[in-house]
Write a structure and sequence with these properties.
Layout (H helix, E strand, L loop, with lengths): L2 H5 L22 H8 L4 H5 L2 H9 L6 H17 L10 H35 L4
Length: about 130
């Protein structure tokens, strides 16, 4: 990978350095939230991909580190999830596909915003573990 690709990745921010100003608002858009998710390495925090996935799947929201791990894993899932259009779709099939994609994205954005709200709450309380 070129250095230009690496330069676009947000710098990591430790829990101890994290401030409310670093965290998107609860009304932020998908790209802003996904960019923020990359300020924390959930794989490193959890110790492995599998452990990171387990924290995210079990929705461990007890600590700031676990919340950020959940957000990080959601970003990675979003990055690797494709929304393929059916092969040679009819206009009706294409329209139905687009509706499903929009509904999924709206639901996903709600979930991400909930994580952001919980992260903001932990930081505002000084619960930085």
């Amino acid at each position: 990978m070129s250095d230009a690709v690496h330069d676009r990745r947000p710098r990591e921010i430790s829990n101890a350095e994290l401030t409310l100003a670093d965290i998107p608002s609860v009304s932020a858009g998908m790209s802003e939230i996904l960019d923020f998710a990359l300020t924390f390495n959930g794989y490193r925090n959890a110790g492995s991909f599998e452990a990171c996935a387990e924290i995210a799947r079990s929705k461990r929201h007890d600590t700031l580190s676990n919340l950020r791990t959940c957000l990080f894993f959601a970003q990675r899932a979003e990055h690797f999830t494709a929304h393929p259009v059916p092969l040679n779709p009819t206009p009706k099939q294409r329209a139905a596909h687009e509706v499903r994609v929009r509904e999924r994205e709206a639901h996903r954005l709600d979930e991400l915003r909930q994580l952001i709200a919980l992260i903001r709450d932990k930081v505002s309380r000084g619960e930085l573990e």
